[in-house]
């Protein structure tokens, strides 16, 4: 059996690599910290070396021509690029590493979106942080739009940090079409919209979960969306190719999210991170539209998507 075929727990992998290459601990010390045997630590390190993603811990900011070009082209503050062949798991590990090293600090507030990419990244965070973090969900009702909702991601982040003083805040839920959505003037919404960090998901209108819910859950006319230059979802809002919000009554009656202007304002505010997380070339048009409009200032993506974003620029 090849080592790459062996199952490994991604949270354990993160902690092993963190203690090995950041804390510089010996294998027996890592085993004690993580709660596994020294031989298992060695096994994890062997897997990491074969898959090569351990390199992100040795050289956290490897030379990336695409990352530099994206920063220059779109005025981004940070770009993290993961090799596409490593898949979502390694992008999640690299994103988690960036959050721990560069972003999470004491008394910070984080507003999180849902979706598989952000879910895997938050799940890869170790219970290492000892900061008091205020955690907000970016959306309520997004279970209509994603298999993994922002509230699910917020709960995972809370689980990682609660014992160190992390607090979870949620929007008042509205369960059906007859209920009024939360008041945008309420304290929870105001705090969530003014957070220090935003984890922003992207979705396609034609592929993946986004495409399925557009056609099946909301029964929107894809041809009409194309006619109106709609390219996908940014933070649960439909946007056009030039980044403008495309209002949809069908969606907005059931989904309540932080507005795009709040994201744009935050992305131009010193010290705030508005992090767009995406994997795969199918997200090219919606990510590029969000970049052009300035909704995000930091990007976590794979290298194929990075190259696609730079085409024709």
Helix content: 40-55%
Largest sheet: 9 strands, mixed
How many individual helices?
A: 15
Q: Would you count the extended β strands for me?
A: 11
Question: Into how many domains do the coordinates divide?
Answer: 2
CATH topology of the largest domain: Rossmann fold
Runs in which pLDDT lies below 50 for 5 or more consecutive residues are: 1-5
- Taking all residues together, what is the mean pLDDT? 82
**SSE pattern:** HHHHHEHEHEEHEHEHHEEHEHEHEH
N- to C-terminal distance? 44 Å
- How does the overall form come out from the CA principal axes? globular
Radius of gyration: 20 Å
In the CATH hierarchy, the architecture of the largest domain is: 3-Layer(aba) Sandwich
Report what the structure shows.
- The chain has 313 residues and is of the alpha/beta class.
- It folds into two domains: 59 residues, Arc Repressor Mutant, subunit A; 250 residues, 3-Layer(aba) Sandwich (Rossmann fold).
- It contains 15 helices and eleven strands.
- Strands 1, 2, 3, 5, 6, 7, 8, 10 and 11 form a nine-stranded mixed sheet that branches. Strands 4-9 form a two-stranded antiparallel ribbon.
- The chain starts with 9 loop residues before the first helix and ends with a helix.
